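Slide 14.
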Amino acid sequence: MRTKSLLLSNLISLLLLQGGLYLLPLIIVPYQVRVIGVEYFGVIALARSISAYIGVFVDYGFNYVGARKVAVYKDDKNRLNEIFMSVLYSKMLLAIIGLLVIFCVSLLIPNLREYYWVYLISYLYVIGQALFPNWFYMGIEKNKNITVIILIARIVFVVCVFVFIRKPEDFYKIPLFNSVTMVLAGAISLQMIFNHFDFKIKSINILDIRENLKEGSGYYITNMASSSYSFLAPFFLGVFYGNSVVGYYSGGEKIILAFKNLIHPIGYAINPIQARIYKQSKRNGLQYLKNKTIMFGLIMLVMCFLLMIYADKVVFVVLGENFDGSVVWVKMLSFVPFLALISNLLGYHGLYYVGYKKYLTYYYVLAAIIAFVFMLILMGYNAYFAVSISVLFYEFSIVLFVVFVFVYVLKNRAY
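Slide 15: predicted structure.
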């Protein structure tokens, strides 16, 4: 009973957290487009897409690896302090590397050079995420603290957009407000942890950083592979069809991501509970995961079906009348959240912890490469067909592989 109530409490807090991160900014989309236009909205969307892709590199799977370590050692204060500092140092190291990458890429690629400063401003959000210790609170299963902070930060961002964005030339202020509020949220959260847990700043331990990078490598590779289309789709659409098409695609993608990002609070809520069950019995852990996947999978399937049926109404309410071009994107990609939920829970939270990380990583990369080839070949013929076929092929093939291996492992006790 306690496990169920703890799961429900963590899930509600993490859903509110994801709502603050992804749903609140949707409120301002119609206003943004009306004031700055679809063209500038496309510029911002591309900058956000590039930053988010590099952000996957900075995260490096620490939300999973770090949270699991914290869940196991949460009663050992000294060990917690060491884990916290090593993960924080690891993230900041990768954030600095990411900053150098986005600076070079935005200056070297001609189509990006005009707005290179917008890409740098957008990247500050990634630095804020690196500072934000959500993984730590997930591990100790006290998610309410960070939920309040992120909701306040997102509300301040939304208010700033409505107050200060008045003309098209103000478009750069949108990523600026977004980044500054996230950096402040990260800094405040860090200070809270140091004060509450009486943590000490420790010297950099290279061995700990190497261990973190090694443990998170599988998550990093699969996350980069699964996030590739989120970056490549707007990138190629911008190259082949211009910023307006990127704007319509990004508007539709925002709605899809609002549903898809429900996966993270579900996975993060399950993660520490399952870590304790795995410690006692791997079979019980897999069985627990199977039951939760079926339950949440059915809920998500119904939500995705309703999204496809009412796509035009959802787009009108969320994005406004200027985004008719986004309806087709929402309809074609409406079942992506369901597919991603199944592969995420059974893969990241199941097979990774019973010795199949290497095989999953290889398959994720292979599927991403094939999807990339599809997108590149088809992009010059039809943008809608190219993106939808590539994305759906990737997600569906991953689900087939993960389900097949999971069933085999559970049936044959191959763990």
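Speaker note: The first helix runs from residue 2 to 23.
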